[in-house]
Amino acid sequence: MAGWGFDLIELPVEHPDDWDPRLAARVLEDHGLGASVSLVMGPGRELVAADRATVRATQDYLRRVVDAAHTVGARVVGGPAYASVGRTWRLSAAERAAAYAELAENLGPVLEHAASAGVVVGLEPLNRYETSLVNTLDQALEVIAPLPAEAIGLMLDVYHMNIEETDLVAAIHRASSRIAAVQVCANDRGAPGSDHLDWVRLLGALDEVGYSGPLVIESFTAENATIATAASIWRPLAATQDAIATDGLAHLEEVMSSA
């Protein structure tokens, strides 16, 4: 990764003991790489419309993710920190408002822990097929409005935004200073630049709102059954998995150098 020219690697924490944060920190330092950390809301991880035991277990998991981020020097922990991916249910306007209030309350202890560790939680809206709770940046802004800005912001994912936002650039401007992290990929989850998205305008909008954090190329492989099913990846998205990273990096650097 360092040899390809990347500055940072995003490390997912599906289970807190999957990898050793102290060892990861040493490996990253040896190669001059930074880190960001993503949380994984698998089955049974819920902060809304769940029993207290499930909520407490989810809060404990999120605190462990924050601890891992702190150890590897990551500034942000990002992901859908509200409900398990794939869980959907219908919500009236009143029910949604109540769910957002419940979410804010249940995020409170996690955010206190994050603030003490110097880590920001990036709340990530997901598309309609993966959640019914937080789909748009405006909805996410509603969730985090009453919460401390030093502990929570937004994680923008261009893949989900391409499905849910009617104007990606306008949405970026509305999110503005609350943007904590940005994940990028093509509209089909392939390499940025191999798609129909206007990367010049997208990166220009991030520059205009003063975002200075990393752009993380997030994609998945069809070769892993669990990942393929969770992300609906049924075919190769590039000639090789490595090409998604290297071609995407080359395109992003070209856009940034020419803007």
Task: Give average pLDDT, whole number.
Answer: 96
Largest sheet: 7 strands, parallel
Taken in chain order, the helices and strands follow as: EHEHEHEHEHHEHEHH
Q: What gyration radius follows from the Cα positions, in whole Å?
A: 18 Å
Distance between the termini: 25 Å
Write the layout of secondary structure elements.
Layout: E1 8-13, H1 21-30, E2 34-39, H2 52-72, E3 76-79, H3 93-117, E4 120-123, H4 137-144, E5 152-157, H5 158-164, H6 168-175, E6 179-184, H7 199-208, E7 215-217, H8 225-231, H9 241-258
Parallel strand pairs: 1-2, 2-3, 3-4, 4-5, 5-6, 6-7
Helix pairs in contact: 1-2, 2-3, 6-7
What is the gist of this entry?
By secondary structure, the protein is of the alpha/beta class.
Folded structure, characterized:
This protein has nine helices and seven strands; from the N terminus they run βαβαβαβαβααβαβαα. The protein has 259 residues and is of the alpha/beta class. The protein has a seven-stranded parallel sheet. Helix 1 packs parallel to helix 2, helix 2 packs parallel to helix 3 and helix 6 runs parallel beside helix 7. The radius of gyration is 18 Å and the shape is globular.
